[in-house]
Amino acid sequence: MPVACTLSSLTLRLDAITSGSNSVTVTLYKNGGPTALTATASISIAGTTVTATDSVHTVAVAVGDSLALGYVQTNNVPVVRIGVSTRGR
Predict the structure, then answer these.
(1) Total structural domains in the chain?
(2) For the chain, what is the HEC assignment?
């Protein structure tokens, strides 16, 4: 990470589930360990879009920290598109 900042939210968006129910959880990892920023979105109707945001937790990021996203899906129903964003301040 080239800039020090505080990440104040993590947003997850799921688009166009083909059928069945599905749940996706995305967690922000800092320097190899999970942080408190986690968003879970669940869909039970095909063709819908769901957004989930964790804006309760924050993560301080320093110059040189490495960030990664962890992804867990509850079943094999295809997810056509997944969007993840963070907000720094």
Answers:
(1) 1
(2) CCCCEEEEEEEEEEEEECCCCEEEEEEEEECCEEEEEEEEEEECCCCCEEEEEECCCCEEECCCCCEEEEEEECCCCCEEEEEEEEEEC
